[in-house]
Amino acid sequence: MPNITFIGTILQPIKISVENPYKIEWDDSESNLKMEFKIKIKDSKIEISCETNYWHDNAINVIYMRAHDICKAYINLIGFQQGHGLPFVLHTFVDHMGKNTLIKFSNPTLSNLCTAYDLSNNFDFLLKLSLNELNIAWALNELLEAITLPHISLVNCTRAIERLKHLISNNEKDDKKAWGKFREILKIDEDYLKYITDLSRNSRHGRNERVSGDTTTEVTKRAWKIMNRYLEYKIAGDTLSSSTPKLE
Predict the structure, then answer these.
(1) 150 dihedral zone (left: phi>0; alpha: psi -120 to 50; beta)
(2) H helices within the chain, ranges in order?
(3) Tens of pLDDT along 34-88?
(4) CB 165 within 8 A of CB 179
């Protein structure tokens, strides 16, 4: 049966090793993949292999998510027992033919949605702004994590937008009024915004549910557009042109 491997590392200047490799079986009913993972860590180097019942190119997304889930659970248990924060990254994929590929987390279509600035125009202004207002820095971080880590797109996109809501509404206590002011100032249709917030509700309250990749992609695109709209608003001096179209 096809066997693939992910290679990674724990991003701490300490040596973590677990002598006995662990075996975990995982079936994915949606893709009909049957997976058997083996994970081992030596001197903070991670190796997690997966034997599957079949292989096709689209299987990599499912297998990567499960591999990441297993590594996260495994490493978190080690970190909790030892009192270490143990961030990690899986950086290399070895396919069933033995070919090594570096893992990149990117969605090139999102770059086209960032029209507020580039690395030559308005970058300095926004850098200073995000350093002076940490909610902006955190919102950007949450959006980037949404395209980097499995399972957190919906929650992170909503958190990022909520941070912007607090900034726009000056921390208005009445949530309904705060959302209304946010939508009015940034010219965002209510249904456009609720598509993001409603889909994340269960996950934000600890009730995880499976959501399709197409849906999470659409949520991420909408959140990207709203973040871009907010940055345009700040660059223009806390205003938007009368010709700015409504996001809907």
Answers:
(1) beta
(2) 59-82, 108-111, 123-132, 134-146, 153-168, 175-186, 190-199, 201-204, 213-235
(3) 999 999 999 999 999 999 998 887 788 889 989 999 999 999 999 999 999 999 9
(4) yes
| The token pair that represents 86 in the structure block | 């143990």
pLDDT of residue 206: 54
Please indicate, yes or no, whether residues 194 and 167 belong to a single structural domain of this protein: yes
The CA distances from residue 19 to 67, 78, 80, 161, 239, in Å, are: 19, 13, 18, 44, 59
The pTM (predicted TM-score) of the whole model is 0.86
Q: Which of 102, 125, 153 is the last residue of a domain?
A: 102
- Give the residue among 48, 82, 84 at the shortest CA–CA distance from 68: 48
DSSP state of 247: B
Would you say 204 and 158 are in contact if contact means Cβ atoms under 8 Å apart?
A: yes
**What pLDDT was estimated at residue 207?**
57
Which of 54, 72, 102 lies at the terminal end of a domain, its last residue? 102
CA angle 70–100–111, rounded 5-degree value: 80
Angle at CA of residue 157, ends 138 and 199, nearest 5°:
150
Question: Which of 206, 197, 195, 118 lies closest to 164, judged by CA?
Answer: 197
The SS3 of residue 147 is: coil
Q: Identify whether residues 83 and 23 lie together within a single domain.
A: yes
Report which residue type is found at 56.
H
Which pLDDT value is given to residue 202? Answer: 54
Is 76 found in the same domain as 17?
yes
Contact 67, 50 (CB under 8 A): yes
Give the range of the structural domain holding residue 210, as residue numbers without chain letter: 108-235
For residues 135 and 170, state if they share a domain.
yes
CB 245 within 8 A of CB 188: no
